[in-house]
UniProtKB/TrEMBL annotation:
It comes from Pseudonocardia eucalypti. Gene3D superfamilies: Fumarylacetoacetase, N-terminal domain, Fumarylacetoacetase-like, C-terminal domain. It comes from the Bacteria. This is Fumarylacetoacetase. InterPro entries: Fumarylacetoacetase (IPR005959), Fumarylacetoacetase-like_C (IPR011234), Fumarylacetoacetase_C_sf (IPR036663), Fumarylacetoacetase_N_sf (IPR036462). Residues 105-363 form the Fumarylacetoacetase-like C-terminal domain. The gene is fahA. SUPFAM superfamilies: FAH (SSF56529), Fumarylacetoacetate hydrolase, FAH, N-terminal domain (SSF63433). Pfam families: FAA_hydrolase.
Length: 379
């Protein structure tokens, strides 16, 4: 099951729903009208904001109650909508957005493209989860179009990006607030992990590379970030958890212990329906609990609805690269598509879709949904 917010056919407002394995959406407001729903102040709402403001014990109880409810078809069938008949909306209000750079393979690949004669990783990379603050206001739900951005592409050169890229990532959805000025330790970091979305950190590479040094990306990343419309709860991912990779050097004590676990996920990236990459979800050097522990170690506060991006996921094989930057060597080695055309970076009209699945409890695979976006021309 996955949680989200949707507008029913003919409806005039959004409500919380649960996407079921049979491609129906359980309408919690409609269910509550027929029988008492526990925690109505959290579940009979316009989106997931109130639920995110609760705590892990409540999320665990909600997850168990929903599993029992869905196991009884007679109880819930009358309150389900075909998923094709509803309109998903952004599932929660994004409070803050931080995008990390946590996959070593991606970091090495990018460095080798631009600095082939230098050390591929910065001296700090294996010591801490590197990240930057993004624009929460430009995070959008799956299916929202993406307008090609304008910006400076070099000295005296302003115009639409010529190097529009995708980045296949995971998005960790944060719930529960932390105390201002008090770090969230590794032992308690997982208490703030409400769930997971798929994330596409759209990137204008020419704008990004011109503006990045010395402070980091701004316009090259600020125009759009897309997330899947349905949030997979953290409890549903128990069977997908795997040990993290070996770290050298060993992380500092504040980045050790607790639930330092990665996720065994399989991602797929399709361009106009054609599979172009299959990044592995277990490629992260730094895990979500470490991102939380590091982010809050200096005094930053977590808020319900915070979104932490993993950074691009890339594996060692050519068909496991999570961006066109890597797949085409910054456009120098274009992809040859099934129709015979060549692709360096994204074109107007292209539609990019990222999907994923994970091992499910009891066997089989758990679908994690999709994040979809089509490119519109610059204005």
């Amino acid at each position: 099951m996955r949680y989200g917010a949707f507008v029913p056919s003919g409806g005039d407002g959004s409500r919380v729903g649960v996407l079921c394995e049979d491609d129906t959406v359980l309408d919690l407001a409609a269910l509550h009208a027929a029988e008492p729903v526990p925690w109505p102040e959290l579940l009979v709402a316009a989106n997931l904001d109130r639920l995110l403001a609760a705590a892990r014990p409540v999320w665990r109880e909600v997850h168990g109650w929903l599993a029992d409810t869905l196991a009884d078809p007679d109880r819930s069938a009358r309150h389900r909508h075909p998923v094709a008949s509803v309109t998903p909306v952004l599932p929660f209000t994004v409070a803050d957005y931080v995008d990390f750079f946590a996959c070593e393979q991606h970091a090495v690949n990018a460095a080798r493209i631009f600095r082939p004669n230098d050390e591929p990783l910065a001296p700090n990379w294996r010591h801490l989860p590197v990240g930057y603050h993004g624009r929460a206001a430009t995070v959008r739900g799956s299916g929202s179009p993406v307008r090609r951005p304008n910006g400076q592409r070099g000295p005296g050169d302003y115009g639409p990006t010529r190097a529009l890229d995708f980045e296949a990532e995971l998005g960790f959805v944060i719930g529960g607030a932390s105390t201002p000025g008090e770090p969230v330790t590794m032992e308690h970091a997982a208490d703030h992990l409400f769930g997971l979305v798929l994330l596409n950190d759209w990137s204008a590479r020419d704008i990004q590379f011109w503006e990045t040094r010395p402070l980091g990306p701004l316009l090259g990343k600020a125009f759009a970030t897309s997330i899947s419309s349905w949030v997979t709860p953290w409890e549903a991912l128990n069977s997908a958890r795997v040990p993290p990779p070996a770290r050298d050097p060993e992380p500092l004590p504040y980045l050790r212990g607790g639930a330092d676990l990665g996720l065994n996920l399989a991602l797929r990236v399709r361009l106009n329906g054609e599979l172009i990459s299959s990044p592995p979800g277990d490629a992260l050097y730094w895990t979500a609990p470490q991102m939380i522990a590091h982010l809050t170690s200096g005094g930053a506060t977590l808020r319900p609805g915070d979104l932490l991006g993993s950074g691009t996921l890339s594996g060692p094989a050519p068909d496991q690269l999570g961006s066109l930057l890597e797949l085409t060597k910054h456009g120098r080695e274009p992809l040859t598509l099934a129709d015979g055309s060549e692709l360096g970076y994204l074109r107007d009209g292209d539609e990019l879709v990222i999907t994923a699945d994970a091992p499910a409890f009891g066997g089989g695979r758990l679908e994690l949904g999709e994040v979809r976006g089509r490119i519109l021309p610059a204005r």
